[in-house]
Amino acid sequence: MLTFIGLGLYDERSITVEGREALRAADSVFAEFYTSRLVGADVTDLERHHDVRIEVRSREGVERDPEAILSAAETGDAAFLTAGDTMISTTHTDLRMRAEARGIETRVIHGVTAQTAAAGLTGLQNYRFGKAVTLPFPYAHGGDGVPASVIDAIEANRERGLHTLVYLDIKVGMGPKGPDPEHEEYMPADNAAELLAAGWEDVLAVVVARAGSPEPLVAADTLSALATRSFGDPLHLLVIPGDLHHVEAEALAGLAGAPEYLLPT
């Protein structure tokens, strides 16, 4: 059995009760933290809290060489952990399909995602979101500014009146016990807003910082204004709203401090 478990958004306690029970019952536990990570807990915190030993796998150790995971699932109960919800990344779908192809039973235990948290914290309606995008560090895509694919997706959503969730790039170096704090880089929301303001300077946007933590931050203003502010510790994301329902407009004003002149009357 291979059980995919989403850890939720923040720390060792963010996992669901169902996920916690499956994790603690597993014979072998694997994890990856290159697609995202918990900023309120490290691997040692997870191991201590759940009384398990976790083998952290690199991207190559999941995508190119998953044999250790699959072998453990063939001979016992293996758990595979990720931050957020476990099936957001195609990497994890590929691993599940490999397991199924070998006759290994699989199970998915979902966790809270940044997407649902962004809707809940901002008051924007979940079904009014269009295609999400990831904004990479300029050096990561070999160019300057914002990739054309990101611009095209945002423009397509705006034309349809839909909100755009913008995930912000992370680069996590790996040490012997998982993510290495000395080699981590997280795109802050002010940096992202500055990049996007080149094309949409006066467009309304919303920053969501540290979703899932005890003290998340939500702030709405123009991209150019958000580019001048600091939003503290990671993880951050941005939302570029489309057409606003009056309840959404009221929520952005009341929950995110959106200036009245940016909202529909």
Automatic annotation (TrEMBL):
CDD domains for this protein: DHP5_DphB
InterPro entries found in the cross-reference section: 4pyrrol_Mease, 4pyrrol_Methylase_sf, 4pyrrole_Mease_sub1, 4pyrrole_Mease_sub2, Dphthn_synthase
SUPFAM superfamilies registered for this protein in UniProt: Tetrapyrrole methylase
Pfam families per UniProt: TP_methylase
Annotated EC: 2.1.1.98
Catalytic activity, as annotated: 2-[(3S)-amino-3-carboxypropyl]-L-histidyl-[translation elongation factor 2] + 3 S-adenosyl-L-methionine = diphthine-[translation elongation factor 2] + 3 S-adenosyl-L-homocysteine + 3 H(+)
Top class in the EC scheme: transferase
Binding site for S-adenosyl-L-methionine: L9, D85, I88, T113, A114, L168, A211, H236
Family: Belongs to the diphthine synthase family.
NCBIfam families xrefs: dph5
Protein name, UniProt field: Diphthine synthase
Organism in which the protein naturally occurs: Halorubrum vacuolatum
Gene name of the record: dphB
